[in-house]
Write a structure and sequence with these properties.
about 35% helix, Glutaredoxin, 2 domains, elongated, alpha/beta, about 200 residues, 4 helices
Length: about 200
């Protein structure tokens, strides 16, 4: 049996070291390029629009329809879905009723976490609407309008729909859903937030 040629062994070891080096640092380089290009895996993206800066309603206690005050910190770890329809009478009554039903479905699909979600309806309800038990009806005011960024449809958004927002447990408005949003997108983001908070 002849001993292996030391030059061949050294050459093979160098190639193996180079392959390991390229494998390790190549994957780090690829991950860095993806990260800084803004790409993120589909499962980690928000469906709603992340607001910057956040709407801030911490210091405001909005009035409930029955006259009481709604306080942000009375319910720790509670997320809020807020909607402020433009109007809910006449031709818009059907759209508001549909929105009310969609919000009720989202709330029910939260299952065991539904008690950590409040649905805030800001303004008048559609005539003859059935009010779900989880709904809190608030009186509209200027602080609420300011705390819900871009409350009116922007150019290119559905002018017939109404926007929705997710408000964190402290009173910061963190996500906005454009008018005519898909309730499934709202449910996906809310489920993820409830899981991590």
């Amino acid at each position: 049996m002849t001993p292996p040629d030391p030059m061949q062994v050294r050459s093979r070891n160098r190639r193996m070291l180079l392959v390991l080096f390229l494998f390790f640092f190549g994957s780090v380089l690829l991950a860095g390029l993806l990260r800084f290009s803004g790409w993120r895996p589909e499962g980690s993206k928000n469906k709603g629009e992340m607001l910057s800066p956040y709407g801030d309603m911490r210091g405001h206690a909005p009035q409930l329809r029955d006259g009481g005050a709604y306080r942000w910190k009375d319910s720790p770890r509670t997320w809020r879905i807020a909607v402020m329809p433009r109007e809910c009478d006449g031709a818009r009554a059907q759209a508001c009723t549909r929105l009310l039903g969609d919000l009720d479905k989202v709330w029910q699909l939260m299952g065991k976490d539904a008690d950590r979600v409040h649905v805030l309806w800001i303004g008048a309800l559609p005539p003859g609407a059935t009010v779900p038990s989880e709904l809190r009806v608030l009186q509209p005011d200027e602080v609420l309008r300011a705390g819900l960024p871009r409350a009116r449809a922007a150019a290119g958004e559905n002018p017939d729909g109404d926007a929705a927002w997710l408000v964190d447990p402290y009173g910061f408005t963190v996500l906005r859903y454009a008018p005519g949003f898909d309730p499934g997108d709202l449910r996906t983001d809310l489920a993820r937030l409830l899981k991590i908070n």
